[in-house]
Design a protein that fits this description.
Blueprint (H helix, E strand, L loop, with lengths): L2 H18 L4 H13 L10 H27 L4 E8 L6 H13 L3 E7 L3 E8 L6
Antiparallel strand pairs: 1-3, 2-3
């Protein structure tokens, strides 16, 4: 197995544990079994460098999510907008999924729609800065 295959299995296990929130031995066995049994797409493998970038962005997104949650609780965020964000070129379905996950993970943004033409529609909330 190459490094990308390991990343795919780790990603599947991470999603399993996020969904179940159960680290019992039985659940670990079920998660590992499902991670190996889910069908794989045999497309061109993502470069290892892209996976490492996305995994680093995931690590950075965790404290960012807490900061944004605190900001929402302390200050009113009453402006909304839907913006289009361009998908990075040559993204495989696995990396597109992770991009959508990262955008949606933070409390101030959520992906509303993915366009096959290479765009995400992202709903954002932000603080309205009063004009004085």
């Amino acid at each position: 197995m190459d490094a990308i295959a390991y990343f795919n299995i780790i990603l599947r296990l991470a999603i399993w544990f996020l969904l179940t929130a159960d680290f019992s031995l039985a659940n670990i066995i079920i998660g590992v079994t499902i991670a190996f049994l889910l069908p794989r797409r045999w497309t061109s493998p993502e470069p290892l460098r892209e996976w490492i970038k996305v995994l680093w962005k995931t690590v950075v997104a965790i404290p960012q999510a807490y900061i944004e949650a605190i900001q929402i609780m302390l200050f009113p965020h009453n402006e909304e907008e839907i913006v289009r964000e361009k998908v990075k070129p040559n993204r495989t379905p696995g990396l597109i999924f992770l991009d959508i996950f990262l955008i949606t993970f933070t409390p101030k943004t959520i992906v509303v729609k993915y366009h096959q033409r290479g765009w995400y529609e992202v709903h954002r909330i932000r603080r309205k800065i009063s004009d004085q």
